[in-house]
Q: What sequence folds into this?
């Protein structure tokens, strides 16, 4: 996705209905260029729509809260709502949400156990962050965006915080698998487009059977490094970017 395409998509998703000429004026581009992207870009074709007044809207708003994001998640809410939800109630809401978005709920390999494992890990994280203002934080479980053949974005857990989106890939393991490092980062660039320029996306692999683990591992065939941590060290990942301990 080039910068013009990103800017057009962000312009649409930050506003509540934009005409093509209004987008062109805001971005200082020719209207013909804007129209080319509006009708040709996968993001505009599949994650935006044009109403009867020829105004363009985003299915997922670039705002807080991110209205529309919940339509593509098994569970979505503000962190304070998540913390007020009992475990089994949360699991039922997650199951219903997964069925709504077409997420396979085959439990033969312990899927529900992995859901609860992620739930407990995130509860513990927010307990560790009890002194932090979480009122504007959002959390999403089982993000599944699968629109036609162009857009594919998956994430186990997203935490949307102050200027950052943490995309967390959960594994109930205690050993690092190089293939899973790449899996954790696979959709990072696409989530950056969804989130817009106000957020940096931080992918991470969380190994919930490990303990006292926090490291960076280089991706295969790349110089990029991805953070890997155990559930009990997830606080350190958030602190590295948001700097709680320095306050």
A:
């Amino acid at each position: 996705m080039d910068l013009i395409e990103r800017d057009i998509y962000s312009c649409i998703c930050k506003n509540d209905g934009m005409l093509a000429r209004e987008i062109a004026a805001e971005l200082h581009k020719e209207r013909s260029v804007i129209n080319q992207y509006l009708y040709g870009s996968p993001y505009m074709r599949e994650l935006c729509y044009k109403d009867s007044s020829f105004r363009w809207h985003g299915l997922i708003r670039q705002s807080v809260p991110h209205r529309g994001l919940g339509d593509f998640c098994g569970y979505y809410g503000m962190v304070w709502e998540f913390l007020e939800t009992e475990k089994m109630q949360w699991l039922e809401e997650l199951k219903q949400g997964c069925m709504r978005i077409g997420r396979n709920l085959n439990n033969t390999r312990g899927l529900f156990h992995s859901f609860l494992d992620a739930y407990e890990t995130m509860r513990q994280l927010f307990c560790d962050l009890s002194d932090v203002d979480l009122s504007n934080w959002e959390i999403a479980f089982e993000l599944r965006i699968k629109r036609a053949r162009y857009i594919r974005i998956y994430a186990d857990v997203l935490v949307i915080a102050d200027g950052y989106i943490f995309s967390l890939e959960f594994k109930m393991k205690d050993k690092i698998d190089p293939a899973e490092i790449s899996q954790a980062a696979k959709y990072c660039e696409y989530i950056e487009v969804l989130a817009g320029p106000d957020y940096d996306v931080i992918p991470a692999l969380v190994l919930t059977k490990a303990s006292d683990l926090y490291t960076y591992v280089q991706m295969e065939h790349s110089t990029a490094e991805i953070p890997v941590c155990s559930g009990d060290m997830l606080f350190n990942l958030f602190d590295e970017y948001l700097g709680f301990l320095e306050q």
In short: The chain is about 40% helix and 25% strand. The mean pLDDT is 94. The first helix runs from residue 3 to 14. The two ends are 37 Å apart (CA to CA).
